[in-house]
Amino acid sequence: MKVVADASVLIALSTIRQLTLLVERFPQGIVIPQAVWREVVEQGRGRPGAQDVAMAPWVTVQNAAPSGIRQLLLAELEVGEAEAIALAHEISADLILLDERDARQTAARLGLRSLGTIGILIWAKQSNRLLQLRPTLDALQQGRFRISRSLYIQALAVVGEKTT
Prior knowledge:
The chain contains ten helices and five strands. The chain has helices spanning 7-15, 20-25, 34-42, 50-55, 68-76, 79-90, 101-109, 117-126, 134-142, 149-158, and strands spanning 3-5, 30-32, 59-61, 95-97, 114-115. The chain starts with a strand and ends in a 6-residue tail after the last helix.
């Protein structure tokens, strides 16, 4: 399975010390474009994810080819998102890891299937890699990851945890 990731999922999972869930879910590894590497590792030096991503042997950096689609995406999305979507489209990725709504909608218009941080955490809970989802979602929010109340409740319901 070919999987491309944007920075948001890498940073969010690193913030809660769950980055290794990605290699557990995608044992063949993930691909990130150079812009995501720069955002997470170079510009993010000293922040969650920087060192973990830099040292992860299961993360491959691959440049998206300069293309018309990349240029169009850059007009409406941040550079990391645009390059991740362009790369996923270019290599016919099976999945792209994105959190931001606009980026996910753009990926869907291009026929790309996406999964976000919450989806990874739901999978982890359902496959017994997390004991409970609620404390993990709470930790994400404490790390300044925005989760709407409805998504929070929906995620808990999917894994059978009660809401308060």
